[in-house]
Amino acid sequence: MLDKLSGSFAPKPSAGPHKMRECLPLIIFLRNRLKYALTGDEVKKIVKQRLIKVDGKVRTDSTFPTGFMDVVTIEKTGEHFRLIFDVKGRFTVHRISPEEAKFKLCRVRRVAVGNRSVPYLVTHDGRTIRYPDPVIKSHDSIKFDITTGKIVDFVPFDTGCLVMVVGGRNLGRVGTVTHRERHNGAFDIVHIKDAVGTVFATRLSNVFVIGRQKALVSLPRGKGVRLSIAEERDRRLAADK
């Protein structure tokens, strides 16, 4: 996230919808990624003018934790960004169209029944949505409309669906689920094949469904295909010629 030469300290994210180790504070995004500010004080002046929206809501906290799939909107410049991992597992500055900025994908953490028998589900970004479609289960992904706060569509977790890995060594890779190994009392393992035919495996908890055959959101450069060091070198040399 930060280079090791520019200081000893880093801004601690505020308490919020994403875990501390899985989020990017707004100050890092605006100052270090977009270069819209030179200092933390300048970032505070930007957010206090109510110019920055995260998932359609104005955020005035400079250390507000933004996480995977969050939509950051700067209306003054007409820019929209989605926080998403690149193939190296880093949060990347991924610009999106205004149409795509109207929704986000949320992973269903759990489905339960609350007081007075009201069914609800909890998403990866801390949302509780009441009365969901009874077909939606844990590990599925929902297409969430940011303006209305309603579920527009959902993608079930199943063999053949397109997923992105959001944890572990394969962070940022995209591929199709080939099969799922069930291990009672241990971690279920999901086997994934990427666009060039490479097969890898990860825990079920690290998998985020992004579409059936085609991704519902646009992907950053590389399209989730990780190259070996030799392949990266060859590609760089070919581009230099």
Written account of the structure:
By secondary structure, the chain is mainly β. It contains three helices and 17 strands. The chain has helices spanning about 25-35, 40-50, 230-240, and strands at about 25, 50-55, 55-60, 65, 70-75, 80-85, 90-95, 105-115, 120-125, 130, 140-145, 150-155, 160-165, 175-180, 190-195, 200-205, 205-210. It has a five-stranded antiparallel beta sheet, with no helix packed on it. The two termini are about 30 Å apart. The mean pLDDT is about 90.
Essential attributes:
globular; 241 residues; mainly beta; five-stranded antiparallel beta sheet; 12% helix
What is the end-to-end distance? Answer: 31 Å
Spans of at least 5 consecutive residues with low confidence:
none
Question: What would the principal axes of the Cα set say about the shape?
Answer: globular
User: What is the arithmetic mean of pLDDT?
Assistant: 92
The largest beta-sheet arranges its strands as: 3-2-5-6-7
The number of E-state strands comes to 17
**Percentage beta strand:** 25-35%
* Helical content (DSSP H or I, runs of 4+): 10-25%
Number of helices: 3
Order of helices and strands: EHHEEEEEEEEEEEEEEEEH
Main sheet, how many strands, which sense, barrel?
5 strands, antiparallel
Structural class: mainly beta
Rg of Cα set: 19 Å
Oligomer: single chain
